[in-house]
Amino acid sequence: MLYGTSMERATERGTRRGEERRAEIVRRALEVIAERGYRGATLGAVAERVGLTQQGLLHYFPTKDSLLIAVLEERDQWDTGSARRDGGHIWPLDLLASLVDYNAMRPGVVQTFSALLGESVTDDHPARGFFTQRYDKVRADMAAILRGEFGDRLPGGLTPEAAAPLLVAVMDGLQFQWLHDRDAVDMPALFRAFVSLLGQGDEAANG
């Protein structure tokens, strides 16, 4: 019985170490991609950053594409791709604005994600499927957020489903503009201004 228990503990420790090493690889891969872009990032460069041989890295991620998807999923874990809190509750708009504030404090991560998003529009890019599925989910989540805030119709008359792509476009578009000129584009303030516009009726919107 004691032998079985010790074996179980050893297995748990091994699993925990494996998860920690996997998480470290993902973090370092994000750094390398931020520095070199996806095309220029090699498994060898990531392995060197982590202190592994390339063969050792392949034990955790058998291909460069699998590592890329893990990087994207890690970055997206607390972002609008899920747009949910613990227990499945939809985020309110003000918390979504806080997410924009948070992104403004991590330009390297935003830059990497935005660069990969731009590259992924090509048919053969390994992240194309990830971003296609992500946008499907993000639009649905944004529609749920807007429905929770305004009901079945926004003050301007749009349905949440019609307004959701606009909300996503503003978030992503502001990131690109902000990355080009952070002094000229106050991303958090501009996003809050757009959210304010969503809450205005036709008359207010028309001045």
From TrEMBL:
Ranges annotated as DNA-binding: 42-61
Domain HTH tetR-type: 19-79
InterPro entries noted in UniProt: BetI_C, Homeodomain-like_sf, HTH-type_TetR-like_transc_reg, HTH_TetR, Tet_transcr_reg_TetR-rel_C_sf
UniProt keyword terms in alphabetical order: DNA-binding, Repressor, Transcription, Transcription regulation
PANTHER family linked: HTH-TYPE TRANSCRIPTIONAL REGULATOR BETI (PTHR30055:SF234), HTH-TYPE TRANSCRIPTIONAL REGULATOR RUTR (PTHR30055)
Region named Disordered: 1-20
Signal peptide (from-to): none
Bias type Basic and acidic residues, positions: 9-20
Keyword Oxidoreductase on entry: no
Protein name per the record: TetR/AcrR family transcriptional regulator
Stored Pfam families: TetR_C_6, TetR_N
